[in-house]
């Protein structure tokens, strides 16, 4: 019976199998992920963006400062050396395969299969004289020849060869260890132990320890945990955080502290240059003693950020520091948004009743500051300053024009081409063409809303305490695409052209006619008094009418222009409330009974907390699986190519409360669907909410849409519902059971008497 043998590889052939597989597992994935991109492809990509993004700072930095880095060259060298080693090992493996072929005596003797006995003997005698050891031949080869001759001439040897593949009979199964024998040689034992000890007791613990030390300092979003703690403390301390306070807290991040971040720099010249910038800015609070907000690194960061928002010229020595600071700001502001949301969730839980939640204005200021940082604009500046070749002097001409009233990007895009050229007559033709290209590249988001209750028989019926799901469908297009489609659809309609619509031999654009008719229809709608619902109308018809009204209100697109127009938006909301006063009469006592609602809603708020945390975990898992590359943001003063991302959430503008947590949408290329979930109010009635869509990069392109909820009383559960009928057959037969118990007791008494 054949046995088993384990032995090290004396020749070192099997070791090549191990090395080949090991090197291949490293080289192939490393080539896919680490091979430097072709510079020509990057130049082609930049060339395609040149007609729109040529004025952007990040675009100019890529052209003016080409990457003179030896890292790509070193990567190529190491990868090529790895492939050379892999090819060499594969060649060695292909050579060693021949040594382990099946034993064939004909091949050893150099004969064709089927040779006669005389031919075998003749060849054997010829090879024996050639390789005999007494005549200076190879002894090993002579033994192989003798073994092959015996296998072909001896009956027993031939039978063993045919049955077991070896003339000597069944052999022991050998398992080769893919390590050369010199590793276990006693002469090399000290060297091998030294290498093993150095690799597994010094290098590996140091690498793992350094990686672990760095990883525990950062959160999942690569933000220092110390920064998150600083933001949590100051956000909790300042419930209503205005823009000045927000900039101060943002600058206190540890990412800008050289003690915690090696990339942050502090120079002796900062002691001279920073005070000069402070005197030019003149609105920095230096009296409060709030470390780390008053530390030198935080003060420097705050001054550089304020100078960026004012579009001030700073010394050349500070420009690199300013660019480093600006690149960190979007991620830090997103972390601050997360901190505010977590504090709101904690404040609504039963365990943290004494915690004051941050205000809705603090959350929205973080989002506005992200837009301001990317565009390099102050809070109340016009969004038209995001365009190239538009300065403050030009802005006065555009906004104060007698004929045209331009306040937003959309107003400018929707103008007639001839009027727009007259408005920008101070620009040269080349600059004007670039401005038009930039205008057409700005995003236009079409937002559709659908409200439903999942896992319910009637998904359109919202009851008290139910889980409301708001499905938001976002379709992204450019401004040029939207208005071209509107123009083509309007021109396709067979409508007579009036003389008033012809100016200079050119008809007005179709979208202008559409806007005018829409304005007239809106005015006629405002003049009509609100219709009252008949009292005798059946309940299903009332629900249908309310749903139609809600859907019609949801489809109205409202664009947030500037912060100065928020008051007018609130006024329009009050007008809508006056029009829907009859429909809101059932919920008019919502404010008076708010305290009682809070008492009854403790359990629902705890569920709300768990719901929002689970939603955030799912959202992060979803975003990790999708690419965050969407569309490049047009920014004149941001030093890095920024991707276009959005926030979407639901809030109550009247009470200034957050209804659903903000969803950070980082994958909107063409179309995306977002589900916003929140528990329905604890009291039936009509509720007015607002769905917000805010950009993290553009100013003046935010959108808001009204969301009307009609909450009904929950249906009572019927007593004799078959689902809850838990009666067991035989329970009604109470007499039989009592008789059984009595007989059982009598038997026990008889046993005791016995």
How confident is the prediction overall: mean pLDDT? 77
User: Termini, distance in Å?
Assistant: 76 Å
What's the CATH architecture of the domain at 445-489 and 541-589 and 600-714? Sandwich
Radius of gyration: 40 Å
Please characterize this protein's 3D structure.
By secondary structure, the protein is α+β, with helices and mostly antiparallel strands. Among the domains are: 4-100; 105-164, Orthogonal Bundle (Helix Hairpins); 185-215; 445-489 and 541-589 and 600-714, C2 domain (Immunoglobulin-like, Sandwich), CATH 2.60.40. It contains 26 helices and 13 strands. Strands 4, 8, 9, 10, 12 and 13 form a 6-stranded mixed sheet that branches. A 3-stranded antiparallel sheet has the order 3-5-11. It has a two-stranded parallel ribbon with strand order 1-2. Strand 6 (502-503) and strand 7 (506-507) form a beta hairpin. It is elongated and about 120 Å long. The two termini are 76 Å apart. Residues 496-600 and 728-754 have low confidence and may be disordered.
Give the SSE layout.
Blueprint: E1 4-9, H1 14-34, H2 39-53, H3 57-64, H4 71-96, H5 105-109, H6 117-131, H7 139-153, H8 155-164, E2 173-180, H9 189-215, H10 225-237, H11 243-250, H12 270-281, H13 296-309, H14 316-348, H15 360-375, H16 392-399, H17 409-413, H18 417-423, H19 429-441, E3 443-452, E4 462-463, E5 467-478, H20 479-492, E6 502-503, E7 506-507, H21 510-527, H22 539-554, E8 558-560, H23 566-579, H24 594-600, H25 602-625, E9 646-652, E10 657-665, E11 671-679, E12 685-695, E13 702-712, H26 734-753
Parallel strand pairs: 1-2, 4-13
Antiparallel strand pairs: 3-5, 5-11, 6-7, 8-13, 9-10, 9-12, 12-13
């Amino acid at each position: 019976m054949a046995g088993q043998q384990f032995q090290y590889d004396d020749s070192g052939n099997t070791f090549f199998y191990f090395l080949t597989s090991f090197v291949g597992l490293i080289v192939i994935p490393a080539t896919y992920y680490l091979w430097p991109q072709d510079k020509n492809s990057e130049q082609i990509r930049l060339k395609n963006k040149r007609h729109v993004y040529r004025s952007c700072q990040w675009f100019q930095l890529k052209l003016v400062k080409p990457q003179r880095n030896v890292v790509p060259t070193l990567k190529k060298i190491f990868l090529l050396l790895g492939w050379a080693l892999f090819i060499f090992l594969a060649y060695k493996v292909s050579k060693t395969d021949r040594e382990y072929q099946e034993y064939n005596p004909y091949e050893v003797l150099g004969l064709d299969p089927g040779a006669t006995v005389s031919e075998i003997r003749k060849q054997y005698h010829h090879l024996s004289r050639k390789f005999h050891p007494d005549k200076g031949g190879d002894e090993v080869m002579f033994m192989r020849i003798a073994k092959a001759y015996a296998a072909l001439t001896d009956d027993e040897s031939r039978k063993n060869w045919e049955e077991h593949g070896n003339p000597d009979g069944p052999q022991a199964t050998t398992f080769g260890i893919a390590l050369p024998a010199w590793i276990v040689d006693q002469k090399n034992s000290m060297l091998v132990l030294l290498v093993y000890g150095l690799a597994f007791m010094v290098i590996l613990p140091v690498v793992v320890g350094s990686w672990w030390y760095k990883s525990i300092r950062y959160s999942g979003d690569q933000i220092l945990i110390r920064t998150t703690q600083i933001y949590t403390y100051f956000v909790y301390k300042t419930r209503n955080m205005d823009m000045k306070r927000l900039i101060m807290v943002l600058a206190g991040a540890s990412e800008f502290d050289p003690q915690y971040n090696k990339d942050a720099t502090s120079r002796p010249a900062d002691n001279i240059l920073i005070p000069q910038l402070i005197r030019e800015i003149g609105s920095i609070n230096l009296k409060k003693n709030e470390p780390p907000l008053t530390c030198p690194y935080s003060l420097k960061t705050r001054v550089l950020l304020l100078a960026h928002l004012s579009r001030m010229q700073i010394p050349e020595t500070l420009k690199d520091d300013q660019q480093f600071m600006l690149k960190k700001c979007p991620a830090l502001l997103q972390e601050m948004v997360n901190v505010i949301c977590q504090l709101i969730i904690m404040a609504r839980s039963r365990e943290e009743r004494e915690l004051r939640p941050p205000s809705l204005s603090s959350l929205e200021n973080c989002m506005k500051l992200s837009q301001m940082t990317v565009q390099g604009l102050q809070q109340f500046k016009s969004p038209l300053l995001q365009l190239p070749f538009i300065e403050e002097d030009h802005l006065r001409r555009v906004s104060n024009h007698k004929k045209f009233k331009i306040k937003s990007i959309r107003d400018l895009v929707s103008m007639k081409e001839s009027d727009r050229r007259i408005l920008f007559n101070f620009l040269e033709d080349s600059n004007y063409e670039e401005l038009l290209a930039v205008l057409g590249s700005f995003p236009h988001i079409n937002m559709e809303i659908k409200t439903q209750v999942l896992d319910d028989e009637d998904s359109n019926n919202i009851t008290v305490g139910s889980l409301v799901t708001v499905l938001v469908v976002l379709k992204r297009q450019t401004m040029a695409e939207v208005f071209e489609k509107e123009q083509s659809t309007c021109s396709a309609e067979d409508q007579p052209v009036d003389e008033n619509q012809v100016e200079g031999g050119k008809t007005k654009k179709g979208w202008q006619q559409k806007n005018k008719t829409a304005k007239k229809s809106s005015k006629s709608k405002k003049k009509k008094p609100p219709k009252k619902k008949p009292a005798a109308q059946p309940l299903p018809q009332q629900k249908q009418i309310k749903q139609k009204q809600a859907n019609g209100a949801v489809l109205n697109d409202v664009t947030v222009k500037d912060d100065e127009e928020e008051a007018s938006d609130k006024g329009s909301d009050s007008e809508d409330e006056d029009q829907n006063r009859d429909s809101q009469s059932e919920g008019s006592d919502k404010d008076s009974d708010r305290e009682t609602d809070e008492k009854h809603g403790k359990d629902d708020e705890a569920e709300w907390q768990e719901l929002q945390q689970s939603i955030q975990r799912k959202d992060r898992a979803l975003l990790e699986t999708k690419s965050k590359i969407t569309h490049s943001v047009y920014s004149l003063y941001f030093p890095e190519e920024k991707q276009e991302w959005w926030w979407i959430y639901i809030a109550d503008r009247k009470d200034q409360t957050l209804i659903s947590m903000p969803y950070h949408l980082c994958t909107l290329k063409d179309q995306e669907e977002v589900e916003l979930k929140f528990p329905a109010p604890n009291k039936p009635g009509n509720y007015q909410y607002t769905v917000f869509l805010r950009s993290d990069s553009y100013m003046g392109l935010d959108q808001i849409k009204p969301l009307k909820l009609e909450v009904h009383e929950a249906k009572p559960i019927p007593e004799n519902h078959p689902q809850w009928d838990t009666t067991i057959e035989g329970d009604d037969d109470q007499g039989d059971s009592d008789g059984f118990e009595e007989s059982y007791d009598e038997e026990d008494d008889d046993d005791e008497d016995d």
